Amino acid sequence: MNRILLAEDEEVLRMLIVDIFEDEDFTIDVAADGGEAMEFLKNNKYDLVILDYMMPVYTGLEIVEKIRCAETNEHTKILMLSAKSQEYEQKKIFETGADYFMAKPFSPMKLLALVEDILDGNN
């Protein structure tokens, strides 16, 4: 079974995503900020990490850099969520090492479809 880490500081959005993913029987760990996300990453391996760009403690970009520096996480797929959807922001996200980007606001069902494609190797 695929294991996912979600790091999102907006509580309502975090709860919505978790509900949808748990309904589909995904194993998902949840962090409310970048510090919690780093603790999960120190102790677990993930197939996919979904990060909010702007979070307290560590930003999504800082976490991506740390994931990409750790040899144990080099194959982890990373999806960045952000309201910062300008082209130069997306370029920075990909240059830092994220594999996928989804602009906020987004359809939770589109997020689920993208995650399923990523984990199935279709994207």
TrEMBL record:
CDD domains membership: REC_OmpR (cd17574)
Source taxon at top rank: Bacteria
Swiss-Prot/TrEMBL keywords: Phosphoprotein
Gene3D superfamilies xref list: 3.40.50.2300
Species the sequence originates in: Ureibacillus yapensis
UniProt KW tRNA processing keyword: no
GO biological process entries: phosphorelay signal transduction system
Domain Response regulatory as annotated: residue spans: 3-119
Record-listed 4-aspartylphosphate modification sites: D52
Family annotation (Pfam families): Response_reg (PF00072)
Alphabetized InterPro entries for the sequence: Bact_response_regulator, CheY-like_superfamily, Sig_transdc_resp-reg_receiver
Protein name stated in the entry: Response regulator
